[in-house]
């Protein structure tokens, strides 16, 4: 039995490579989003920690006033950084969504060719089985005819 050959195999291979490339791009974009979210969480945790420490230091007075002012300035800076990173995260999420759409489109193109390949291969195998059965029937008929003579 001859081996099945799909004429569009090279195109299917290219589509599969494109799917792999899009998957890697999507992974990188997702990783960047996760990293930015961790940075936001870190900034907010630092802000909470300094505010908690400031409240634990007692009421402002004398030497504590400078600490309170520094703690407040640090908390404000951490919140500003969290907001700035949040804006970066929003842009990164848009890029991730675009990468996800590109991956989905590439996957659909590859799936169409994959299904076509599977259908053609199934038809090829069926035709080969029919051809083989036909040959076996001919051999059986010849053997039967030879026995009768």
What does this structure look like?
This protein has 149 residues and is mostly helical. The protein has one domain (9-148): Helix Hairpins (Orthogonal Bundle), CATH 1.10.287.1700. The chain has helices spanning 9-56, 64-148. Helix 1 packs antiparallel against helix 2 (64-148). The relative contact order is 0.13.
Number of separate helices = 2
Give the low-confidence spans. Answer: none
Quick one: CATH class?
Answer: Mainly Alpha
Shape descriptor: rod-shaped
Helix and strand pattern: HH
The radius of gyration computed from the alpha-carbon positions, rounded to a whole number of angstroms, is 34 Å
Helix content: over 70%
Span between N and C termini? Answer: 33 Å
Write a concise keyword list for the protein shown above.
Helix Hairpins; 149 residues; 2 helices; mainly alpha; 89% helix; single chain
Task: List strands and helices in order, with pairings.
Blueprint: H1 9-56, H2 64-148
């Amino acid at each position: 039995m001859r081996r099945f050959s799909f004429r569009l195999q090279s195109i299917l291979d290219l589509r599969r490579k494109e799917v792999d490339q899009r998957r890697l791009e999507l992974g990188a974009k997702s990783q960047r989003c996760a990293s930015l979210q961790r940075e936001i969480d870190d900034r907010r945790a630092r802000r909470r920690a300094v505010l908690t420490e400031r409240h634990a230091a007692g009421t402002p007075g004398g030497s504590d006033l400078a600490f309170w002012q520094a703690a407040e300035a640090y908390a404000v800076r951490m919140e500003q950084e969290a907001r700035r990173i949040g804006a970066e995260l929003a842009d990164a999420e848009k890029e991730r969504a675009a990468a996800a759409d590109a991956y989905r489109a590439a996957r659909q193109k590859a799936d169409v060719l994959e299904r076509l390949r599977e259908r053609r291969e199934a038809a090829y195998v069926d035709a080969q089985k029919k051809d083989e059965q036909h040959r076996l029937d001919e051999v059986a008929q010849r053997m039967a005819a030879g026995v009768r003579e």
